[in-house]
Amino acid sequence: MQFPDFKSELECFEKGYSLVLGCDEAGRGPVAGPVVAAACVLNRETIGKYRSKNKWYYRVRDSKTTTPEERKILVKEIFEHTLAYGVGEVWHEEIDKINIHQASLLAMRRAVEDLLQKAKSVKQKAFLFVDGRFKIPELSIEQKSVIDGDAKILSISAASIIAKVHRDNIMKRLDGKFPEYGFINHKGYSTKEHKLALKKFGLSAVHRRSFVKST
């Protein structure tokens, strides 16, 4: 299992950037619910040069390698050591209109814009690390896309956990509205349970029509 570090962020600070962000998304694959992105700025004062078991971020990593129980603990630690964070959502209607790739980039842009607005940091010299192959369009700050960034860069890993927890909470709420689909169990992914529910009940109001056609 690969664990991220804070070296890339520190290099940015050394180059004169005063604000270093990480951004990632969750929910590209599900056939129901939104794709959610998060962006965050970690407090460099509480992060050492080397990872060790006594560091708060010791277990912070790509959210896909964590359990729901572990994420509940990790997200609290992240929030305690985050100077600012933002969240962006793109729901099923938009996903069906613009496709999941564009929707993911849009969710990340909204997350970054949400963070900058909350932090009132637009005038600061900022740098953004984005998970994946593509940069986020229509952003005015400098950025770098990093393949497997959620396994390499601590700020991206923290953002991935924030995004995953936020989306899971949305799916739990949707389970209350549409209990017959079992969203609380599979979070909208195309599991056997979900496919059987779709066959029995058809599409709900929050299913991605463009996805269900191909399942």
From TrEMBL:
A divalent metal cation binds at D24, E25, D131. GO terms for cellular component: cytoplasm; ribonuclease H2 complex. It comes from the Bacteria. It catalyses: Endonucleolytic cleavage to 5'-phosphomonoester. Its EC number is 3.1.26.4. Keywords: Cytoplasm, Endonuclease, Hydrolase, Manganese, Metal-binding, Nuclease. GO terms for biological process: DNA replication, removal of RNA primer; mismatch repair. One of its GO terms (molecular function) is manganese ion binding. Residues 18-215 form the RNase H type-2 domain. It is found in: Cytoplasm. Belongs to the RNase HII family. PANTHER family: RIBONUCLEASE H2 SUBUNIT A (PTHR10954), RIBONUCLEASE HII (PTHR10954:SF18). Endonuclease that specifically degrades the RNA of RNA-DNA hybrids. This is Ribonuclease HII. It comes from Candidatus Nomurabacteria bacterium RIFCSPLOWO2_01_FULL_46_18.
